[in-house]
Amino acid sequence: MARWLFKTEPSNYSWDMMVKDRNIRWTDIGNNWALKFLRQCEPGDNAFFYHTGNDRCIMGIVEVTSMPYPHYEAGCDCGVDKEEKYAVVDVKIKEKINSPVTLKEIKADSFFEDFHLPKYGRLSVMPVSKEIWEKLIEMGEGTTSV
């Protein structure tokens, strides 16, 4: 199982909306590097649900439930040209982080110096190592099923 971090602007799609919807299609990935990572996702992978914007924090965990597929096959308007190069995955809610972990906290800890999140601020999908995953869960005071 791989681990990821997926970013979303909470004014577009928030953790509260995810809690209500339970299952969604993760769309609007246009950056080539982020798309490369998204195409590596597999069912059963977990991803941190990260709020961008003013929040800048990890809110919860979602589970990938589909292989990546071209967004036009989903019948959605994902806000990008209808080219095959754009991909989506389906995800379902898994757990909430008991205490959201902020970007400020992550940047303040040298443990995360090689983590993509503080290094590449505009990258919307990124891998998370097992060690970093576990440290972030610990910083968030564990998780709770939702």
Automatic annotation (TrEMBL):
* Residue ranges occupied by any EVE domain in the UniProt entry: 3-139
One of this protein's Pfam families, by short name?
EVE
Q: Which InterPro entries match?
A: 5hmC_binding, EVE_domain, PUA-like_sf
- Which SUPFAM superfamilies does this entry report, sorted A to Z? PUA domain-like
Top-level taxon: Archaea
Specify the protein name. Answer: EVE domain-containing protein
Source organism per UniProt: Marine Group III euryarchaeote CG-Bathy1
Print the organism lineage. Answer: Archaea, Methanobacteriati, Thermoplasmatota, Thermoplasmata, Candidatus Thermoprofundales
